[in-house]
Automatic annotation (TrEMBL):
Keyword Signal found: no
InterPro entries in the record: AKR, Aldo-Keto_reductase, NAD(P)_OxRdtase_dom_sf, NADP_OxRdtase_dom
CDD domains reported in the protein's UniProt record: AKR_AKR13A_13D (cd19076)
Keyword Membrane: no
Recorded superkingdom: Bacteria
SUPFAM superfamilies assigned to the protein according to its UniProt record, in alphabetical order: NAD(P)-linked oxidoreductase
GO molecular function: oxidoreductase activity
Domain NADP-dependent oxidoreductase: 13-305
UniProt KW keywords: Oxidoreductase
Name this polypeptide is given: Aldo/keto reductase
Enzyme Commission designation: 1.1.1.-
Amino acid sequence: MKHVRLGDLEVGRIGLGTMGMSFAYTGAGSDDAESIRTIHRALDLGVTLIDTAEVYGPYTNEELVGRALKDRRDQVVLATKFGMISHTGRRGLDSGPGNVRTAVEGSLRRLGTGHIDLYYQHRVDPGTPIEDTVGALAELVAEGKIRYIGLSEAGPATIRRAHAVHPITALQTEYSLWTRDPEPETLPLLRELGIGLVAYSPLGRGFLTGTISSTEQFGDDDFRKDNPRFTGENFERNLRSAAEVEAVAAEAGATPAQVALAWLLTRGGDVVPIPGTKRVSRLEENTAADTIELTPEQVAKLDGLTPAAGHHHNEAQTRLIGL
Ligand SMILES: NC(=O)c1ccc[n+]([C@@H]2O[C@H](COP(=O)([O-])OP(=O)(O)OC[C@H]3O[C@@H](n4cnc5c(N)ncnc54)[C@H](OP(=O)(O)O)[C@@H]3O)[C@@H](O)[C@H]2O)c1
């Protein structure tokens, strides 16, 4: 696996998102043994960046990752997130300094580690100045509890203000063939400031792999059930984008998932996708995207993909991003 830099932090250029092992998608929590094998296989194949969050479960995903890394902690760049759960009695988002301190202790305990390599604010908290949050995080860096600071789905003004308090290492945001929102403003800003971009849902929550042909495949608690891209007419229209990815994949001698990831790797050495899977076979498939070289013609076709129909988040989630 080739290595790249997120700020000063070196990582394998394809990471692993563990959310779906415990949370949000159909089958979550159904086979922890296979999930743990998937994490181990990732490490064997040179993946280093493992991504979880306090809210995944909640808590159970960090516990699972902690179990998986019991004897392999030193092989991993371990990333987790805080701020979607309040431990101080507030409602909703809480990135107040008191909550940051409580949250980090819980994550360290569940992950079975003395330090977190990359600690993200999961969503910007409109009730707490970002300077106060990053100030509390900088104290955790000084104490050795966390090594690097990240933000997730923060808007440009917040990124600048945060970075002025303490260097921000990575912004985690949705970025994929069908979610190109970071390109006009966010990506140039990150490059100006030397911040890496960690691309979440790089497979379009599974859609770009060509394996989702009907929403009947989703269980009742699957988050995609009320995602605008997966509902009604939008879903039908979006099948066209998936077919276009499949056509390029056939030409490249790769799978659609690999093409979706290889395209992200062409965006620059500061863009690190974290595809999510709870299965060894798919992990192997996704990680092999490291070796796929797309031709300029294939990249051009992917650049011109039919834009997705529907927003990438539902209304409630949309209100929380870009703040
Ligand atoms: N910061 C944030 O707010 C935020 C939001 C969402 C996600 N994330 C992070 O980003 C990670 C990845 O995003 P994501 O899980 O939402 O979406 P994703 O990586 O785009 O897609 C994951 C989905 O695709 C399926 N899949 C994976 N590889 C496949 C393959 N080769 N062929 C067919 N299907 C495949 C998975 O199913 P199986 O598991 O059954 O293989 C899962 O349902 C998460 O795990 C999480 O760590 C962060």
